[in-house]
Amino acid sequence: xxxxxxxxxxxxxxxxRSGPDSIANRIGEHLAISGEALFYAALLAVPxxxxxxxxxxxxxxxxxxxxxxxxxxTLGLVTLAVLLVGVGxxxxxxxxxxxxxxxxxxxxxxxxxGTDPDLRDxxxxxGLTHRQVLWQVCVPAALPALLAGLRTATVQVIATATVAxxxxxxxxxxYVIDGLATRDFPxxxxxxxLVVLLAVAAQLLFAAxxxxxxxxxxxxxxx
Amino acid sequence: MDGxxxxxxxxxxxxxxxxxxxxxxxxxxxxxxxxxxxxLALPLGLLCTRFPRLYQPLAATFNVVYALPSLAVFVVLIxxxxxxxxxxVMIPLTCYALxxxxxxxxxxxxxxxxxxxxxxxxxxxxxxxxxxxVELPSAVPYVVAGLRVAAVSSISLASVGALIxxxxxxxxxxxxxxxxxxxxxxxxxxxxxxxxxxxDGVLLLARRVLAPWAGRETAVRR
Amino acid sequence: xxxxxxxxxxVVLMAAIALAATACSSSKSDPLxxxxxxxxxxxxxxxxxxxxxxxxxLASIYSQALQAKGVKVDEKFNIGSREVIYGQLxxxxxxxxxxxxxxxxxxxxxxxxxxxxxxxxxxxxxxLPSSLEILNSSAAEDKDSLTVSQATADxxxxxxxxxxxxxxxxxxxxxxxxxxxxxxxQFKDAYGLTFKDWKPTADTTANALKDGSLxxxxxxxxxPRILQLGLVALTDPKNLFGAQNVTPLVxxxxxxxxxxxxxxxxxxxxxxxxxxxxxxKVSIDKDDPSAVAKDWVKANGxx
Lengths: 223, 222, 303
What we know:
The complex is a heterotrimer. By secondary structure, chain A is mainly α. Helices cover 78% and strands 0% of the residues of chain A. In chain A, helix 1 crosses helix 9 and helix 6 (117-125) runs antiparallel to helix 7. Chain A starts with a helix and ends with a helix. Chain B is mostly helical. By secondary structure, chain C is of the alpha/beta class. Mean pLDDT of chain C is 86; it is low at 1-41. Chains in contact: A-B, A-C, B-C. At the A-B interface, helix 3, helix 4, helix 7, helix 8 and helix 9 of A face helix 3, helix 4, helix 7, helix 8 and helix 9 of B.
C-alpha cells in the first residue's frame, strides 16, 4: 500500500460513482455550500466596503474589525452555531460567511481607496455626481482588488468548508472525517486531494476572470 | 438547547486554571510554527531575490499548501508524528505560516528602491552589510504585515487540532459540542480571539520599534 | 498573479503529489496505527478514550483510580472512534481503553453470536490479538433497553421484559426508526410479545415515555434522562439485547499487577444505575468528567 494506491483505491471504489458518497454528489454539496457562503459574504461586505472606501470614513475600523473576524475559530463558530440553530446549512454558513466577509470588505474598501485621487478629482471636475464617480470610476478601478479578494476568500472557504462534516453535514469533508473515523486512509487522502483540486480550479478560474473580465484600459495598466 | 444558557458564568470562574493551561498550550502550538516559518522564510526569501527563477515555483507550491484542509494534513501526518502530539499539529501550521510569509518577505526585500541599493554600494557597503543595514530593515514592515496575518490564522487554525486530540483551546469546542454545553465553546472563541488580538498588538508594537519610519499600514496579499 | 503562474501551480501540484507518492511508498500498510512505541511496564500508563462524553467519563474514572494508587497516568481523551484508538492501543501508544465487550466483539468479529456477558468475554479473549487483553467486565452496561415510566412500572408491576406479557397488545412502543424492522420479530420469538403500535420517536423516546404518548420505549441504559425523568429500564432475561458491559481493554506490555488490580476493582464497583447517575452529572449538570470521576473513586473506597 502506498499513496498512489490509496488514491487509486479512492477513485476506483464503486461508492465514488453513484449514491450520496459519490464524488459528483460530494463536490456538488461542497460547491453549493461554498458558493452560498461567498454569495452572502459578498452581499454583505462588498457594498459596505465600497461605501466606506469611497467616503474614507471608518477605513481604520474596517481593518481592525477584519483582523478580529479573522481570529474567530471556524470550529468554534460551527459547533456553537449547531447548538444554537440546530444541524443544518445555516450552522455552516455562519462561520464561512464570517471567514469570507472580512476579506471581501477589506478588498472592496482598499480597492476604492486605491483609486488615483487625480482621477477622482478629474471626474468630479467634469461634473460627475458622487454616485457616478463611485460607479463609473472607483468600482472599475477597484475590480482587480475585489477579484483578488474574492479569490482569497474562495480558496479559504473551499478549504474550510471541510469542517462542516464534523457536525454531520455533507461536502468533501465527509471523506476526510469518515476516513479518520473508520481508519479508511484512502478516503481521507482522496478527500483532501479533491479539496485541493477544487481550490486550485477556483484559483485558475479567478486568474482567467481577472484577465478577461477587466476593462481593456485596466488590463494594460496592470502590466 | 432546552433552556441551557449561552454562558454559565460560574463554570468560567471554576475553570480559570484549566482555561489558562489550554491557552498556554494553544499559544505554543500556534505561535511556535509562525516563528519557525519566519526563520525559514528569511533565507528562502533571500534565495528568491538572488535567484528570481526560484520564486515562481516556490510561491506556487505554497499557494497549493495554503489550500490544503488542515484536518486532512493532520490525519496524513499521524502515522509519522503520532496521534495527539504537538508535532502533528505544528508541522502543517508551519507550512501555512511559510505560505504567507514567503511572498511578503520577498516583496519586502524587493521593495528597496534601486537608487538606495546603489547608494549603499557607492558608500562602500559589501553585500552582507548592505543586507543587514539596508535590505532587511526595509523589509521589516512587509514581514511584520505578513507575520500579523500568519499569526492570526495560525491561532485560529490550531483549534482544528482538537479533532485529532491536540488543539489547545479547540478542546473546548468539541467538549461543548458533545455535551450540548455552549459555555466552553463561547469561552474558547473569546480566548482564541483575545490571543490573536494580543499577538497582533505585540507585532504592531514590534514594528513601531524596529521600523519607526514605516507608515501605519502595509498591505499584504492575503 | 498571471495565468501562467497558475499553470505553474498545477504543474507543481502534480509534481508534489508524485513526489509524495514515491517518498511514502515504503510506509506501513496501516498508517493510522501510528509510530510504534515500546510500552515499558510500570512506567507511565497512557489512557485513551473515544470521542463521546461517556467514554471520556469512564477513562477519567480509570485515570483517577490509578492516580490514587500512585500510578503515573497520561490522559489522551476524546481522540476518535474505536477504529482509531484501537490501532493506537495495538501499537502501544495507548495502554488502557474503556471498552464495551459486545461492541468490541462485533468490531473484531462481525459474525460473533455470543449474547451473555460471560460468553462475550470468552469470545473476546479468543478474538483479541495476543498483545491485548480485556480485564474483568463491570456490571455497568450501555445498550438498548425496553424502558417504561415509573408510573407504568408501578401500575402493571413491571420489572423485566417478561412482565410485559399480557400488556403488550395495549402498549405503544417507540425507538429509533430502524428499531421496528430490527427487533419486531425478535420480541415475538424470544418473549412472545406483539405490541399495539410502533412509533419512530428517535431521540425524543425518553420524553415520549414521560408524557405518556408511549408506554414502552427503546432507551439507552445510560441515558441520564432515565434518572432525570424517573424511568425504569426493564431487565432482559433472554438477552435479546446482547451484553455491552463496560470493560477495560489493555495492552499487556504496558500494565503491571497494580494497574490490573486497580482497574478490576473499578469494574467490581461500577454498575448501570451508578453510571447513569455519573452521566447525569456530566451531561446535564455539566460537571467536569475528571471531578465526577474523582468523587466516585473516593466514594467507592478506591482512592
